[in-house]
Amino acid sequence: MIAVDARRLLGRIRELGAIGRDGEGRLTRLAASDTDKQGRDLFVGWLRQAGLDVAIDRIGNIFGIWQSAGNAGKAPLLIGSHIDTVIDAGIYDGCYGVLAGLEVIETLKASGLSPSRPLAVAAFTNEEGVRFSPDMMGSLVHAGGVDVEAALAAVGTDGGTLGQELARIGYAGEREPGFLKPHIYVELHIEQGPVLEREGIPIGAVETLQGISWQRITLDGVANHAGTTPMSMRRDAGYAAARVVTFLHDRAAASNAPTVATVGTMRLEPNAINVIPSRAVFTVDLRDPDEQRLQAEEAALAAFLQRLAVEGIAVTVERLARFEPVVFDGRVVELIETAARKRGLVSRRMTSGAGHDAQMIARIAPAAMIFVPSAGGISHSPREHTEDAELVAGANILLDVITELAELEG
Amino acid sequence: MIAVDARRLLGRIRELGAIGRDGEGRLTRLAASDTDKQGRDLFVGWLRQAGLDVAIDRIGNIFGIWQSAGNAGKAPLLIGSHIDTVIDAGIYDGCYGVLAGLEVIETLKASGLSPSRPLAVAAFTNEEGVRFSPDMMGSLVHAGGVDVEAALAAVGTDGGTLGQELARIGYAGEREPGFLKPHIYVELHIEQGPVLEREGIPIGAVETLQGISWQRITLDGVANHAGTTPMSMRRDAGYAAARVVTFLHDRAAASNAPTVATVGTMRLEPNAINVIPSRAVFTVDLRDPDEQRLQAEEAALAAFLQRLAVEGIAVTVERLARFEPVVFDGRVVELIETAARKRGLVSRRMTSGAGHDAQMIARIAPAAMIFVPSAGGISHSPREHTEDAELVAGANILLDVITELAELEG
Questions:
Q1: Radius of gyration, CA atoms only, chain A
Q2: Are B271 and A265 in contact (CB under 8 A)?
Q3: Among A323, A338, A361, where does a domain finish?
Q4: What remark does the entry make about the cofactor (chains A, B) (predicted)?
């Protein structure tokens, strides 16, 4: 059984993770920034060292392609993720999947075998969406979900456009986005959630990616004196908001489904200790891997808000974002399970609660994801951590899945 | 039956209410400000016109005293309230009670009768507490509740001390606070709440003033990804806070007592749409006219918070303020009811939900309050309104109560 070079993989994860540190040691490589350029340069150098063809498209996605005269006409197997980061990031989110992809290709290349179709690794631009909106932008453009010109015109939090910034750092490529149409796409990623660690399971075979519904809700009641207004005469927007919070939470918690509901932001007006709130503004984040259930959650929320309206609370709802769930390719998910079993690793089917480039590429090719445990479920933090052995195990499962799909010939 | 001069009273309320308007017509006479000086000057002018002795104490409280050689040694009947305002105020809060007090004394003086003891009207300094803390400061100092030096050292929101500001506007008087010990104190005020208007009752005989318990509560849970953290693995501080809000509201609403509970402020951390709140900070305002019930409310809250702690939410409670309820003098309350009945006006006994100078003076003398309706329960706003006829009716009840207490001799 072949295996990835664990030292090389782990060394590269640490080396890339050392780039973009500020004076206090905080890691930040926002999309198309100077530090992103440094990370990209390092990655492209490794692609060239590995003898891969490097291609960069107009949205800055980087591809390392291993192809031969014999298979160059076929759709490649694509492994991908991203190497941009959030502010004060950990070293694994995205980078692990990209560097494991490179590792798998190098390992197979060194084996002396020939795949029936090209193998490629991709680092997609601006997955995090911190500097430019929306997130998962490079893979979205690759999948044809948004026009490349519109994406390049996105204005960053610091004023410049993505197009200007990509040109400035030398990563405004010439290839048309989508030039590489994958035969199958596989993404390896840290879970960013607590499930695998809690259950002591090393491999997640990700079969779905949750649909997301984001809404901003404004409730308007009547401000009044907290001391002189009897409870029966109040129209307390803060109390109404609290009822929505408990309704959503209790409903999701009581469900047997993996539905999650979160109210992450809340603002009261006038926000004074002795004034009944006239207004509450809060956000609702609903997620479910099943579109019918997600719609049912939205409908239940709408019905609850309607009840508040009948009670004299004015309700305003803004839709902020809505993505349908993604169902990954069943055959690839089975390959992941089989690979884990062969290596004696327990796996479980699961849902991705976070968004990933795989959900975009799933629009144009069969796709699936492999998860490894995240300590404490933590990500987007310097405390993000996965054990070395778990990282290597995940990369070997990726290797096995790609090996199976590549129909290697001796 | 004698009656106040309605035109004079209403005219003075409007005239005083015209002082302290900014370019946009907003009324603001913060304590010891230039506009407060203008209001004080106008009021003192009216006191002198009425032939009253004017006395000003070191905390700036203004007294207009009608006494004669025959009654000068006796403790006076005191009528009072305040003429400082909040920012963007209405014209009735405080001013109505002070000007009605002057009106009552002028009316009795003009009647040719002689009271058995002096009559006095007081305008207490800094009742609103907007510029200097605490509120109800002048009456608190008068009642000996806080040392005058400490009160004068209070630093305003704009940097100067109350002592400096009173000296600057010419209202740092020479009398020692408390020099005038009232025989009985009566305060006439707009309700600042909706009860009288809703019930169509013109006169409130205020028998109690609610106790107040203010607390700031901080709940600490664990921040986590809103998409990847199952409901069963959350320690959501925002959800815990919402449970406190609904618990307090529902408990107070279900009670037969006049208990009120308000959560007026709320802040979540990190306050991001897709992050489970790690922290919620909110205030609790509990009020009840009965001390035992108020303590029971506090205990119920503490028990609920203890339940949250058992569930893994860290709880921090800060006491911000605590005042025991005030029980006004039963005989004066009965006099108010009798006076209303004699004038054919419906009255009801009630609780004051707001704080008033009367609660401070009640420490040193029998006291009670008379309320008139506030349209919509609104105060501390330009929309504060009471009908002229209601204002005049309230002043006549005050006249009747003072007449009864004054043991007039012809």
A1: 23
A2: yes
A3: A323
A4: Binds 2 Zn(2+) ions per subunit.
Both B47 and B94 in one domain: the answer is yes
Within a domain: A78: yes
Give a yes or no: residue A171 inside a domain: yes
How far is Cα A162 from Cα A160, in angstroms, rounded to an integer?
7
For residue A270, what are the domain limits? 211-323
- CA A97/CA A130 separation, integer angstroms: 20
Q: Does A303 touch chain B (CB under 8 A)?
A: no
The domain boundary, picked from B280, B307, B323, lies at: B323
Instruction: Confirm or reject contact between A397 and chain B (CB < 8 A).
Output: no
Residues of B in Cβ contact (< 8 Å) with A243: 242, 246
Question: Per-residue pLDDT tens for A23-67?
Answer: 999 999 999 999 999 999 999 999 999 999 999 999 999 999 999
Show the tokens assigned to B383: 């929309």
pLDDT in tens, A374-389: 999 989 889 999 999 9
Contact B118, B65 (CB under 8 A): yes
User: CB-CB: which of B266, B273, B354 is closest to A268?
Assistant: B266
**What 3-state class would DSSP assign to B348?**
strand
State the smallest CA–CA distance between residue A329 and chain B in angstroms: 21
Structure ipTM: 0.84
Spell out a b/e string for A172-193, using b for 16 or more CB atoms within 10 Å of the CB, else e: bbeeebeebebbbbbbbbbbbb
For residues B310 and B336, membership in a common domain is answered with: no
